[in-house]
């Protein structure tokens, strides 16, 4: 692994190094037009230069509005979507350089849990057949009796009775189906789980149960998680570190505590200002940062800072012209904004029309 890949994310603390290192990863989808000739008329810059690393046993939360490229990033890490450029190192091995055979073997160690358990579970397959499939694909299925015992163990680990094996996905509630999705990921004994909006399709009352299950399993099995969510509350609870994504790139990355205590990027500030505070005194004097305008199209991202078309702190003309890099402004706290210090000190204030005092 190259030195740059080790990054500043704490390798000195962990002699074994990070489990996952992503370097300048890009996924650009071609936009094709034409009836006779299939012409490429542009690209959707879904992921446009993301670098991050995840330590063993860590939970990295990835948040951002719908369409900012979270799922594409997750899929590109597992090479379910082919990256345009950049690299992904999994346990020191370059995923992009893996041949089909090696990729198939390594996939066992990197599993994905999807948002909508109903559409990701084949309705015509029993739970037993869904669970056995991955084990067979990786030659992990033993004798019928051994496999049955293993499946019952897995179901118990995700809080479902052994009798579930003979049932079909539609016979379960949304929360139970997500438990089956998690059990399916666990059948092959993975090291990394990329969970893409694992609780977004579930009732709020069930969300916490599934999040708690993921945490329990992590403790018991030593799993490493990349948890993707558009909901900051979900990530706050589960993540050790959080990356905030906007239009295909990270704009801020730090520990969950630091992000929620003091978000430094204007976009994170706006997102967090929309979350109510439990303390009534704080809540009453809270300022809400309003974002105007829609998320620009990733096919035509703004020049300079990608957030400049919506940023209440935008300054002429550097924000429009120069793309800020994600750099460490406080220990372990990276931000991509030219004016972090002035904004944090209050020297640079947001435009008043973007501030709503509650
Ligand atoms: N296979 C694809 N082909 C073309 N565009 C895609 C494809 N998958 C995703 N996109 C586009 O890439 C952008 C990011 O999508 P996605 O990664 O799904 O975002 P998120 O998960 O954050 O909602 C969106 O504009 C989406 O329409
Ligand atoms: S660089 Fe400028 S436009 Fe971008 S977030 Fe910072 S202040 Fe806002
Ligand atoms: Mg998504």
Topology, please?
Blueprint: H1 3-6, E1 20-33, E2 39-54, E3 59-63, H2 70-77, E4 85-90, E5 93-94, H3 100-107, E6 110-113, H4 117-120, H5 127-137, H6 144-157, H7 174-186, E7 192-196, H8 204-221, E8 224-229, H9 232-238, E9 241-246, E10 249-255, H10 256-261, H11 266-273, H12 280-284, E11 287-289, H13 318-321, E12 327-330, E13 333-335, H14 340-345, E14 355-357
Parallel strand pairs: 3-8, 3-9, 6-7, 7-8
Antiparallel strand pairs: 1-2, 1-4, 4-5, 9-10, 10-13, 11-14, 12-13
Helix pairs in contact: 5-7, 7-8
The structure holds adenosine-5'-diphosphate (ADP), iron/sulfur cluster and magnesium ion (MG).
Adenosine-5'-diphosphate (ADP) binds at residues 29, 44, 46, 64, 66-72, 298.
């Amino acid at each position: 692994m190259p030195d740059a890949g080790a990054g500043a994310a704490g390798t000195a603390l962990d002699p074994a190094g990070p489990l996952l290192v992503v370097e300048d990863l890009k996924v650009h989808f071609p936009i094709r037009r034409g009836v006779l000739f299939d012409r490429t008329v542009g690209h959707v810059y879904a992921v446009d230069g993301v670098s991050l690393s995840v330590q063993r046993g860590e939970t990295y939360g990835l948040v951002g509005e719908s369409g900012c490229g979270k799922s594409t990033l997750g899929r590109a890490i597992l090479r379910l979507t082919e990256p345009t450029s950049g690299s992904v190192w999994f346990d020191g091995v370059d995923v992009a350089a893996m041949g089909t055979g090696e990729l198939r073997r390594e996939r066992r160690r990197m599993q994905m849990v999807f948002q909508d358990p109903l559409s990701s579970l084949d309705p015509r397959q029993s739970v037993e057949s869904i669970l056995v499939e991955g084990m067979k694909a990786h030659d992990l299925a033993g004798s019928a009796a051994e496999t049955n015992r293993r499946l019952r163990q897995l179901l118990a680990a995700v809080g479902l009775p052994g009798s579930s094996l003979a049932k079909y996905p539609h016979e379960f509630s949304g929360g139970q189906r997500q438990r089956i999705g998690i059990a399916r990921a666990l059948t092959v004994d993975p090291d990394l789980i990329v969970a893409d909006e694992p609780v977004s399709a579930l009732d709020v009352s069930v969300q916490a149960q599934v999040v708690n299950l993921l945490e329990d399993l992590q403790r018991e099995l030593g799993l490493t998680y990349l948890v993707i969510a558009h909901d900051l509350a979900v990530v706050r609870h589960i993540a050790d570190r959080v990356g905030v994504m906007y239009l295909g790139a990270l704009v801020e990355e730090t520990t969950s505590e630091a992000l929620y205590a003091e978000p430094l990027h204007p976009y994170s500030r706006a997102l967090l200002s929309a979350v109510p505070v439990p303390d009534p005194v704080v809540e009453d004097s809270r300022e809400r940062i309003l974002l105007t305008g829609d998320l620009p199209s990733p096919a035509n991202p703004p020049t300079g800072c990608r957030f400049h078309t919506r940023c209440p702190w935008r300054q002429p003309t550097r924000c429009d012209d120069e793309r800020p890099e994600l750099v460490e402004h406080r220990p372990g706290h990276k931000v991509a904004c030219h004016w972090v210090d002035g904004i944090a000190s209050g020297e640079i204030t947001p435009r008043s029309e973007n501030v709503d005092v509650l």
